Amino acid sequence: MGPAGSGKSTYCATMAEHFKALNRRCYIVNLDPAAEDFKYPVTADVRDLIQLDDVMEDHELHFGPNGGLIFCMEYVIKNLTWLQENLEAGEDDYFIFDCPGQIELYNHLPVMRQLTEALQSWDFRVCGVFLVDSQFLGESSKFVSGVLSSLSCMINLEIPHISIMTKIDLLPKKSKKKIKEYLDPDMLSMAETMNHHSAKYNKLTEMICQLIDDYSMVRFLAFDQSDEDSINIVLQNIDMALQYGEDLEVQVKDFETDEQE
């Protein structure tokens, strides 16, 4: 999940290829009724249930893009049977849910929380992956905004949560160096670099940065689709959040049989 333009399509495509290389089963479910096309195979597509264009063209509803998307997701919640019927999972199967990018769905509306609660009731282990375009985080003030958005989603959904900076591979070298500072940020120093015209806003900024620094609840991981190590680190963190593999049976090799052969 992540804001519009966060690179979620590229993220899903890259992860699908990575799972294939690791010989791990991965299924991608499209939950974005406004999606247009995919660079990866989709196991289930919410557009078979409802599409944003159809909602916006309805002359009785009179919805724009934002209202229409909220209507679509609320419709999905009312028809969770459709989703459950399209999710046939084995014990070690791994699903990526490609969700809409409208931030309101995550930070104050109940829709996505209701969805995650439904998945958990179906014995899915769920981890929220919050994607932010690294090109958006070029300034300290924008970074703090990204942290607060991620924190808001984390609090609202109440599930294990991973925050990721995408499109690292598209940044120039100078910007990459700057972004690295945000992976382990000094929030207090960052607050000093943000200048405001009003002293009260300076104080507010300091308090926000202090809060982020004190609790360390949001830490971003860098996602570079051209760097296999970067992809592995992201997947390992998600696996740990999901406790993936803990219930799988240990594969024991029969050395005696091998020697006899």
Mean pLDDT equals 86
Strand order of the largest sheet: 2-1-3
Percentage of residues in DSSP E strands: 5-15%
Number of helices: 12
Number of domain units: 1
Shape: globular
Percent range for helical residues?
40-55%
| Poorly predicted spans | 1-5
CATH architectural designation: 3-Layer(aba) Sandwich
Distance from first to last alpha carbon: 50 Å
The rounded Rg comes to 21 Å
Q: Tally of extended strands?
A: 6
| Main sheet overview | 3 strands, parallel
N-to-C series of helices and strands: HEEHHHEHHEHEHHHEHH
CATH fold call: Rossmann fold
CATH level-four homologous superfamily name: P-loop containing nucleotide triphosphate hydrolases
SSE layout and pairing:
Layout: H1 8-21, E1 26-30, E2 44-45, H2 52-57, H3 65-78, H4 80-85, E3 94-98, H5 104-107, H6 111-121, E4 128-133, H7 140-157, E5 161-166, H8 173-183, H9 187-193, H10 199-215, E6 220-222, H11 228-242, H12 255-260
Parallel strand pairs: 1-2, 1-3, 4-5, 5-6
Descriptive terms for the model:
single chain, 261 residues, mainly alpha, Rossmann fold, three-stranded parallel sheet, 49% helix, Gpn, GTPase activity, Gpn3
